[in-house]
Amino acid sequence: MPPYILSLTLPIDIGIVLLSSTMFDTAVLGSWSVILSAGVVVLTGLVLSQRRGNLPPGPRGLPIIGNLLDVPLKHPWRVYARWAQKYQSDILSLRIPGATLIILNKGSIVNDLFSKRALIYSDRPQSTLFEMMGVSRLIVFQNYGERWKSYRRTFKHDFEAETNSASRSHELAASRRLLRRLLRTKNHEKELRLTAGDAILSVTYGLSPSGEDDSYVALADETMTLLADVGRGGFIVDAIPILKLLPSWFPGAGFKDKVARGAKLVDTAIRTPFETVKAEMATGNFKSSVASRYLASLDDFTNTPDKLVDDMRNVLGIAYLGGADTTVAQLCSFTLAMLLYPEVQKRAQKELDAVLHGRFPDFGDYGKIPYVEAIVHEVLRWNPMTPLGVFHVLNQDDSYEGYVFPKGSICVANVWAILHDEELYGPKPDEFIPERFLNKDGSINPKRADTDAAFGFGRRICPGRVIAREFVWIAVAHLLTAYDIVDGTDKDGKPLERSKIEYTSEMISFAPHINCTFRLRPGVTEGMINDAIDAM
């Protein structure tokens, strides 16, 4: 996979040209590798110089480099949505050295391809760099095949089945601990991140963060930061895979030092919490979790074939590494929405007060507070945490609506455009309006309440989405019950303005950094919060 496509698979950032300095470690890169790289550009450019044929419309592009300079760096999902209007087509294409991008801006089209033709649209872009770092073993980056199916069955069984009392008790406890953390901090983003880690770690491994410097949360953050950094830069080894055989001291092979560090970090992040659970189970002092139940199902978990343990370790690893970031993104987006739309906050609190009568919410209240449920749907729709999803790769030539997609095309579902489709979600898609998910009587409208696009499509849809939704719901319900979210300012201390809000342009898109106050609501006391936690 070309390095600029690697960039797109993580933070949606792209190197401007294949021979840019971001791809080379030092100026001492040998002339032979420059020649080889140039050869790659020229050869792929020859392909790009051919006519578009029956590809979907898109920018015209240039000789040799095709549409490389057209790929948007900032909020590409918005740019692709504008292009769909410009070219009067919900299917677009871009041709860049080594790859064809097919961009899909309509939910029905994505369903036709990713769901109805899942057998040929379920692969992932492959990267020599990711292979060297051990990232390709994680289910989200694996190609569709027997190993992926095995991982998927395991994940689906253990995480979709987790919508039960064991999972919910962990999520409920994490939500209540968040209320206590917010009593003593002005850095709400730090506490939201810690709480997301709390929920994921407790459900997956039965572990709870020990504090703001918790080693498990820090390890996951460091790993995800490194992966984003690697994806952002792009490396020559993805253009010329044979370079992976070079020693790290060889001119131009300095990337191997970062790869080695990344491989060690990924392996540590996947192994450490799992091995902790094994050690706890050996002593009999452990909490129920997905990991503990899996290990308990084995005849002898201390003497089990490595492959079985590795498979489960890797399945749990992606939940641990990826689940926290996407959850934090949703909670930060919720906080921003409450500051920008205080009337929404007030209506939700009125609903909660009428149902709860002075207590804190629990999962028995699901279905009784539809406006809170609508807020969670709107958080997912308004600014989805992965606006372009994770890319799919076509494993054979295909045609659709008169267009021809070549084998190997990288297919991009514009999740943001799909969730801003006025035909599906009503007018004013850029505004935060939970009412769009409600019937006139205030109940949830099942025809509107489908925001699964935020979690992917077809056979690659996130199998942990049920747990993810439930945790955000219970966390939001607790925050609105206990606190007024007020006094919002930007990073410079200026009042927030809706028109100036900009989310990040990475694969997991975050709300901008803001300052605000979580103020205890009248009638809510620190003692009540502590009592609710102690009652768990």
TrEMBL record:
Instruction: Provide the residue positions that the database annotates as binding heme.
Output: 462
UniProt cofactor(s): heme
Q: Does the keyword Zinc apply?
A: no
Q: Could you tell me which pathway this protein works in?
A: Secondary metabolite biosynthesis
Q: Does the keyword Electron transport apply?
A: no
Query: What family name appears in the similarity comment?
Result: Belongs to the cytochrome P450 family.
Protein name stated in the entry: Cytochrome P450
The species is Agrocybe chaxingu
